Amino acid sequence: MNTDDINLAYAVRRALNEQLDTLPAPTTARLAAARATALARKKADAPQRAHQPARQGGLFGIQIGALFSGAGLGRIAVAIPLFALVAGLAGVYQHEQKQHIADVAELDAAVLSDELPLTAYLDDGFNAYLASQKRTQ
Amino acid sequence: MAHPPLERMATDKELSDFLEHVERRAFKQAVYAVRKDESAFDIVQDAMIKLAEKYGDKPAAELPMLFQRILQTTILDYFRREKVRNTWVSLFSGLGRRDGDDAEFDILATYEAEQGSSAAESSADQVERAQTLQIIENEVQKLPARQREAFLMRYWQDMDVAETAEAMGCSEGSVKTHCSRATHTLAAALKAKGLTL
Question: Which residues in B lie closer than 8 A to residue A5 (C-beta atoms)?
């Protein structure tokens, strides 16, 4: 910005500052009250937390005490349901896999025992046929 | 190895002095943005409380930039809430409620009365002076939001380019561009009104 621009900027600044003096008294009083409210809620000093040396010990470097602090409990509260969800999904997957293997094995056994007519391989109701065979046995 | 000295957190008095120094300008900044005194007051109060609660332990030197960032965010939040509210109001406007119109009318009437009473002086020169200041203020208010933010932070809040860029979340080059455009826009607008500063 050139000198004229800067002069204009500072002239505007002076004008805006003059306008500040025209703020109504109730507004300035409310601002002062808001300031007092904000100061009353000022963040507490925390120098001890900043300078506190890390305590040695713990299992595999994990501070046991930290696990049961507010943040630690929060993490555990999130981790346990997540772990349960993952374990549940893994269990369902294992069960489905076993079921699939059992079905295939049943079909293989039927084919190898050669109890089926050749047309059965083309029949859409293959499983129904197998079931009826079992019932007759 | 020598460590840099730790920056001392702001004392209660430093925080109080800082807020006292900026509160009226912050209020005006909010008024320029939202154009409603009552909303502007709420915004400034929220910003002051957020600064004290979340950043009260920061060094005093960082307070201006942090406060400006909080103030701008709070103003943006206000506009987001207004947008959502207006959407719902427009959806239900067919129900025939007229309370909103009445409330808006009252606020504007009060605002104008406050301005009139504060500027009411006996001398013709003082009236003219007040009118000039009001014109300047109006033109600042008309600036595009980002230009106005950059201009006010740089030339009214005494923040340097780097602090302004950090508070606005943009590059230093963008701050310079916004400031330059704001100044040119103001110069042209004031010239059109017959004012030379």
Answer: 180, 183-184, 187
How confident is residue A77, by pLDDT bands cut at 50, 70 and 90?
Answer: confident
Of B12, B41, B118, the CB nearest to A42: B12
- Whether B66 and chain A come into contact, CB under 8 Å, resolves to no
pTM of the predicted model as reported, rounded to 2 decimal places: 0.59
What residue numbers bound the domain in which B27 lies? Answer: 8-90
Q: Which residue, B43, B65, B90, sits at the end of a domain?
A: B90
Q: What is the ipTM of this complex?
A: 0.70
Query: Tokens standing for B46?
Result: 């929220």
Closest by CA position to B53, among listed B38, B70, B30: B70
In angstroms, the CA B66 to CA B73 distance is 11
Compute the nearest-CA separation of B93 from chain A (Å): 33
* B44 plus B86 within the same structural domain: yes
